[in-house]
From TrEMBL, chain A:
Name of the encoding gene: hcaD_3
Domain of life: Bacteria
Record GO cellular component, one term: cytoplasm
Any Pfam family: Pyr_redox_2
InterPro entries in UniProt: FAD-oxidoreductase/Apoptosis, FAD/NAD-bd_sf, FAD/NAD-binding_dom, FAD/NAD-linked_Rdtase_dimer_sf, Reductase_C
Gene Ontology MF terms: oxidoreductase activity, acting on NAD(P)H
Domain FAD/NAD(P)-binding: 9-313
Reductase C-terminal domain span: 336-408
Cofactor(s) needed: FAD
Protein name: FAD-dependent oxidoreductase
Organism of derivation: Streptomyces nigrescens
UniProtKB/TrEMBL annotation, chain B:
The protein's name: Ferredoxin
Pfam families: Fer4_15 (PF13459)
Protein function: Ferredoxins are iron-sulfur proteins that transfer electrons in a wide variety of metabolic reactions.
Cofactor needs: [3Fe-4S] cluster
Keywords from the UniProt entry: 3Fe-4S, Electron transport, Iron, Iron-sulfur, Metal-binding, Transport
Source domain of life: Bacteria
KW GTP-binding (keyword) present: no
UniProt KW Magnesium keyword: no
Cited InterPro entries: 3Fe4S_ferredoxin, Fe-S_cluster_ET
Length: 454, 69
């Protein structure tokens, strides 16, 4: 048995954070067979979080965020070529250059790409950008260096807010347009959304909530934008930060449960087919994966979080080279960080899986606090603003399903010890996609769609 | 050599910023920014920062897949 799972051919499609960490873990766990990494982007794996931070601030060039390796992975790297299909019976990955790569086990780690501006003619205007790849970050950073008169950021999720923050730090005029009631509200709910709005305005952002951009204008070059409330601005750069699209198209004919919400897999990262039958040779990890989580009522979770890509890749790799009874579940508590407008924001758990929120430490006024989220009387998430060291404590409360609201912290005086509704809006109200999606048991195929009771 | 910091794990203790200020800097009170590519003259300092980080959040290594281009 041992020999059987430790050798053979493993192919990883998606050569970024999850793909790299899985490859390293496979070798660490004793995989001696042949390993191939297929990646659409020409450059070796690099880190994305700095793209909207260090890179846009002009401190680090976009092509210098390469990820360090933990160990040599002794792999064949097929970079700069896209996987276009998967033949699950012949066990081959089809590549855009016509080649076929046979596998015994496959890891799908194709992540997401930026959602483009829906009007292709407007999206093609010079000055309109998205931000997901290092190439996109390079072009945007160059344009910011050139000193545009005004930058329009469309969508005030984490990426949009970080872009706006970097622009303000460079002294550039910024307008942020968000369909929802406040920045970050889709991820963090009403209380912290209101704080984010206040901060953006205090930093000189022209923040417009409850509006949409109806048209990007220009003749070859972007000159301005039209809003749904009838107003208009002049802008020479627009960054479309409307969330991400999962790279599952190449799996359309594969028979897997793969669709716009990702690739559905079990807690051991094994992909399901379209009938909900688990496969034993196809695994998924990172932003592409949707997996059941016991802390959130076994709903399927899709996360766009760095830490999840790392942790899930390690579990997937372990399970690819271990027989059934030795396999591990991926049960990590979701965690996320962001830095913007001088603040360090960190989250554990799933804040959108909540009905109430309480400021458990610190205060909104000082923008230094921990907000704790509860669902039906138990703690399900915590978000810190410049107070990260407290978070480990709340993570334990989440892991143990401790009662909500939590007992007050001894040291800190509390501004509002009374829980208030967490005010998590329907994602449809937002410009950007949520970075955490709870999608219930709803594999993305007609045959298996279950309509949730509303 | 390259570095990446697991900022979920990082507690903002700023030891790294103290030991290798050209590579690690605090941004605001708590947020850490870093240069992913370590300049040649800074390697020893970064090694010390990796060792000193109380939560072992810094990973240093050769650039992954560098020979693969
Ligand atoms: C600007 C930005 C800022 C971020 N900031 C934070 C942050 O502060 N905190 C945080 O927790 N997370 C952050 N993230 C999210 C984090 O970067 C992702 O969660 C992480 O990159 C996911 O890794 P992954 O390997 O699953 O997917 P990805 O990084 O998306 O990698 C997927 C790879 O697969 C390739 N690929 C796609 N389709 C194919 C195909 N058909 N064939 C071959 N290759 C293919 C892609 O080119 C890509 O390189 C940020 C992301 C961005 C873009
Ligand atoms: S020493 Fe470690 S914990 Fe402290 S700031 Fe640096 S990376 Fe973060």
């Amino acid at each position: 048995m041992r020999g059987e799972v430790r050798d053979g051919r493993i192919v990883i499609v998606g050569a970024s954070l999850a793909g790299l960490r899985a490859a390293e873990t496979l070798r660490e766990k004793g995989f001696t067979g042949s390993l191939t990494l297929v990646g659409e982007e020409p450059q070796p794996p690099y880190d994305r979080p700095p793209l909207s931070k260090q890179v846009l601030l002009g401190r680090v060039p976009a092509d210098r965020t390469g990820l360090p390796r933990r160990r040599d992975v002794e792999a064949q790297w097929r970079l700069g070529v896209r996987a276009t299909g998967l033949d699950p019976i012949g066990k081959r990955v089809l590549l855009a250059d016509g080649e076929e790569v046979p596998f015994d086990r496959l890891l799908i780690a194709t992540g997401t790409r930026a959602r483009p501006w829906p009007n292709p003619a407007e999206a093609a205007l010079d000055g309109v950008f998205t931000l997901r790849t290092s190439d996109e970050a390079r072009r945007l950073a160059e344009r910011l260096d050139a000193g545009p008169r005004r930058v329009l950021v469309i969508g005030a999720g984490f990426t949009g807010s970080e872009i706006a923050s970097a622009c303000r730090e460079r002294g550039l005029a910024v307008t942020v347009a968000e369909r929802g009631p406040a920045p970050l509200v889709g991820a963090l709910g009403g209380t912290l959304g209101a704080l984010a709005a206040k901060l953006q305005r205090a930093h000189g952002v022209d923040l417009r909530c409850g509006v949409t951009v109806t048209a990007l204008e220009g003749d070859g070059r972007l000159t301005g934008a039209q809003f749904s409330d009838g107003t208009h601005i002049d802008a020479d750069v627009a960054v479309v930060a409307l969330g991400a699209i999962r790279n599952t198209e190449w799996l359309a004919e594969s028979g897997l449960a793969a669709g716009p919400r990702g690739v559905t897999c079990d807690a051991g990262c094994r992909a399901f087919d379209m009938y909900g039958i688990v496969t034993d040779d196809v695994f998924a990890a990172g932003d592409i994966a949707r997996f059941p989580h016991p802390l959130f009522e076994y709903q399927l979770l899709s996360l766009e979080h760095w830490g999840n890509a790392v942790a899930q890749a390690e579990v997937a790799a372990h399970n690819m080279v271990n027989p059934g009874p030795r396999r591990l579940p991926h049960l990590t508590v979701p965690a996320f960080w962001s830095s913007q407008f001088g603040l360090n924001i960190k989250s554990v758990g799933v804040p959108t899986f909540s009905d109430q929120v309480v400021i458990a430490q610190g205060s909104l006024k000082d923008a230094r606090l921990v907000a704790v989220y509860g669902y039906r009387g138990r703690v399900t998430a915590a978000v810190s603003v410049n107070q990260a060291r407290s978070l480990a404590y709340y993570q334990r409360l989440i892991e143990t399903a401790a009662p909500f609201p939590p007992a007050p912290g001894a040291a800190d005086q509390i501004e509002s010890p009374v829980p208030v509704p967490s005010d998590v809006p329907d994602p449809k109200l937002l410009s950007h996609g949520p970075t955490v999606a709870l999608t219930g048991h709803m594999p993305d195929r007609r045959l298996t769609v279950v309509q949730p009771a509303r | 050599m390259n570095v990446v910091v697991d900022l979920n794990r990082c507690q903002g203790y700023a030891q790294c910023a103290f030991l290798a200020p050209e590579v690690f800097t605090m941004h605001g009170e708590e947020a850490l920014l870093y240069h992913p590519v370590v300049p040649d003259g800074q390697l020893e300092r970064v090694r010390r920062a990796v060792a000193a980080c109380p939560v072992q959040a810094i990973l240093m290594g050769e650039e992954a897949g560098a020979g693969a281009r």
